[in-house]
Amino acid sequence: MQYIYIQPVDEVDVDLFVPGLNFVFGLASGNNAVISLVRLRPEYYRERKNEYLFRERSLKEAIHEPGHTFGLHHCPDIRCIMHFSNRLEDTDIKGPGFCKACSNKIRNKLGEALNIPPKL
Ligand SMILES: [Zn+2]
Ligand SMILES: [Zn+2]
What we know:
Blueprint: E1 10-12, E2 16-18, E3 21-24, E4 26-29, E5 32-36, H1 51-69, H2 88-93, H3 100-114
Parallel strand pairs: 1-5
Antiparallel strand pairs: 2-3, 4-5
C-alpha cells in the first residue's frame, strides 16, 4: 500500500508579496502552500464583516494553492478553482471545484502516485 502525504496549507494573517506583484492571496512551491487571510476579509476593504464570505474565500484559496502542488497551472475557465485570482472578484466568481480538465489532471496525478492506470 502506498500513501500520499499532502502537506497541510499554512494560513497566515499577514500580507504576502512576491517580486513583480503587489500582493498575492496565496503561494505554492513544490509540496508547500501558504495562503494569506488578510485580503480575504471584507473589512479589509471597509465593507461590512461577513464571516460566511470570508470562510468561503479562505476555502477557495485553500483548495487552489494545493492544486499547484499537484502540478496544476492556472486555468482559463473563470468558474474553475484553478483560475488565477488577480482581484477578489475573481475569487468570488469562481466555484470551489475543479473544471473537468483540471479534475482529470488531478485524478491522473493521484493515479500516478497510487499506481492506478489513467481513466480513458
Ligand atoms: Zn494560483
Ligand atoms: Zn480548470
